[in-house]
Amino acid sequence: MPSYEQNKNSKLWSVRFREPDENGIEHQRRLSGFKTKKEAQYGYQDYVAAKAEEAKKKAAQTPETPDDMLFETLTELFFNYKEGRVKYSTYYSMRSRVNAKLIPYFKGMKMKDIKPITILDWQKKTFAGMSYATTSKLMEALGAIYRYGEKYHDVTNIMHKVDKPRNLSPKKEMLFWTPEEFNKFYEAAENETYKLFFLTLYTMGLRRGECEALMWNDVNFSKSTLKVSKSITNKTQKTGWEITTPKNAGSNRIVTMPAFLRDMLKEYKKQKTEFTEDTDFVFGGSRPLAPTSTDRYFKNTIEKAGIKQIRIHDLRHSCASLLISKGVSIVGVSHHLGHTDVEQTLNTYSHLMPDDKQRIATELQNVGKLITKHQ
Fold this sequence. Notes:
Layout: E1 3-6, E2 13-20, E3 26-34, H1 37-61, H2 71-82, H3 88-106, H4 116-126, H5 132-153, H6 179-188, H7 192-204, H8 208-212, E4 219-220, E5 225-228, E6 231-233, E7 242-244, E8 253-256, H9 259-270, H10 291-305, H11 314-325, H12 330-337, H13 342-349, H14 356-373
Antiparallel strand pairs: 1-2, 2-3, 4-5, 5-8, 6-7
């Protein structure tokens, strides 16, 4: 039973009572600051009612079986598990997609109430107007949540019953620059840092983040090589940018520079008055290049040069297409780009390879010439 008392000095009322914790052990509790005893009584009643409501909600959220778990509860457990296990940029991107497109639809649903038809309805209402790449990422996120739930919480995984979205849009043409087009761009550029940055992307085929992360101790002038072992991500809520590992294991590599690029970087380094080998970025100094400024300079220089617009990432495609056109083996191109395996390179750039059917026919025709020659 609660007991009420008035402070002799402040004249305010308080109520004392005993309350059990989650283990059933009782503890002394006190509510204070009431002007009258009546207010203290009402205050105690409100407290008891709030506790009862809290217990009711908790009981409703506590699943009787794994499949009684709410979708948002499983999702939160999934992201708690993922945090620190994947790159922050990966975690941040997936969480943003889930919060925007999954949680609003499935919130409040128990896992047992989400059927394949439920997911199909979600696809119909959510995927309209979205690109195939975006819908695929949403399905990957949903699948990952289900796989986690199945592995760690015995939630029934129904994703094998759900059809993946089909890519009905025509394949986009891969854009790249010929050496002549890049030369026009290079001549139109005036800022020395940006010129060298884009030249390095074009000739070395680096990913943008890999090039932004290059530090002076990654450049070996005596061996004419660049060490690619890290990347810059700008998808972070911490400093605005963050140094992370490269995209995959194959991305860690040593690439050989052409002599002209090595000499240009060496001359560029001489112009630097103050820098630290292992903490200063080749392009940007104590901080990496700002992405918005880089994008703006790239776009403006393209317009100035009067050539077709491409993305900065397309400089990597330009490097690959150049090497393939010059007869470099697909294995060599794969290593230069830092792909995980040759199949990845073939899937991306097979359309740039010479027409093997025509080459086969040509070679067989040459054999035919030798045969008919003796008839």
